[in-house]
Amino acid sequence: MEENKIFINVVSIPREILIDILSLLDPKSLSNLSKTCKFFYEFCKFDFFWLNMCKEFGIDKLGNFPNFYTMYTGILYKYGWLIGYWAGNKPINGSLLHLKFDPYKLSIIAWKLEAINKSLSGVPWSKNFSVRLVHAEPKFTYQMLFCVQYDNSKHKSKIIRSNLLYDEEDNNDEEFIIRKAIFEKHHESELWKREEEEIYQESIIGQQNCFSFEDEKFFKFWTPKDNQKENKRFDGIWVGDYGGHGIEFLLLKYEISGCLFATKITGDINVPRGEISWKCNLDDQLRICDEREWNGKISYRAKSKIAYGGFRNPSEIDSEVIIVSNDELAVYWYDLRSITTFVRVI
């Protein structure tokens, strides 16, 4: 009798207040509450709750899903942690994956990003003709490695690779199933170390910062929510030209120390992935540019890393970073008599 009275008191709470209360619950608690009675079973399916949970992954569009409840429980609950940008640990060169959620295709698609420079040759710098200026004009290519696709008829997701379909329950291909992995942070950049790390063989069952696919491991370093951070003017993924090594991807992050660090997501035989390519003190203004290319722009003192093949005898050389805009920077490598531009990807 007392339990019935409590239940009546709960269901008599105004709808708006009950929504506010239940909005504080995590997905598991909301699911457990829905099992208690018919009232909460129906109430907990209110799409407002599940929209907020989808927003945690940076998603607020339904696409071809019937509702956000289906979207979250059908694919995001188990695989949403995959959404974002991942750095691969392939020796020297590394790689970059973008796992993107497409609500219209009911899928999370893993794209491998590569780029070439459409600007094939450098031009003399107007301030000093002996210095070569190379503009980064990237052309991107995308290769699909795999995708996780929601099956509406079964209310579960399947893994698709190339033209082959893998069911989680039936697939025994241990070389394909995405697996847990652990990693050690690079001592300087906090991306991959150069050494090999241990790997777990079981399938992923929860949120991880790292996974293994085929013969490569991937570390998540950027999510859609990172794009929403304030006071991070230059934070993001950029590309720049490294001469004969071509276009490379970098992660730019501003630290509280006042320094802007550019870490190689992909690398080359001289300075491999995971190393800091250059760092700039944004509190140490060097000059106001008077050259034709960047007249009136401000440059700052910087240090850039160079090395012989195989990352032998790495050293830092004096450089300067010219702030062209929030989406373009130029780095003047003094000793190399070269200026390269960097442009934002995200």
Tags for this entry?
346 residues; alpha+beta; elongated; Monooxygenase; Lipocalin; 3 domains; 8-stranded antiparallel barrel
How confident overall, as mean pLDDT? 82
Please describe the biggest sheet, giving its number of strands, its sense, and whether it closes into a barrel: 10 strands, antiparallel
Counting H and I runs of at least 4 residues, what is the number of helices?
Answer: 6
CATH fold assignment of the largest domain: Lipocalin
Q: How much helicity do the residues have?
A: 10-25%
Over the alpha carbons, how many angstroms does the gyration radius reach?
25 Å
Strand content: 35-45%
As residue ranges, the low-confidence spans are: 163-176, 194-207
**What is the number of beta strands?**
20
InterPro entries: F-box-like_dom_sf (IPR036047), F-box_dom (IPR001810), FBXO31/39 (IPR045048)
GO biological process, one term: protein ubiquitination
Pathway: Protein modification; protein ubiquitination
Keywords: Ubl conjugation pathway
Describe it:
Mean pLDDT is 82; it is low at 163-176 and 194-207. The longest helix is centred in the N-terminal third of the chain and has 12 residues, at 68-79. The protein folds into 3 domains: 2-45, Monooxygenase, CATH 1.20.1280; 81-116 and 141-222, no CATH class; 224-344, Lipocalin (Beta Barrel). It has 346 residues and is of the alpha+beta class. The termini are far apart. Strands 8-7-6-3-2-1-12-11-9-10 form a 10-stranded antiparallel β-sheet, covered by helices on one side. An 8-stranded antiparallel β-barrel has the order 13-14-15-16-17-18-19-20. It is built from 6 helices and 20 strands.
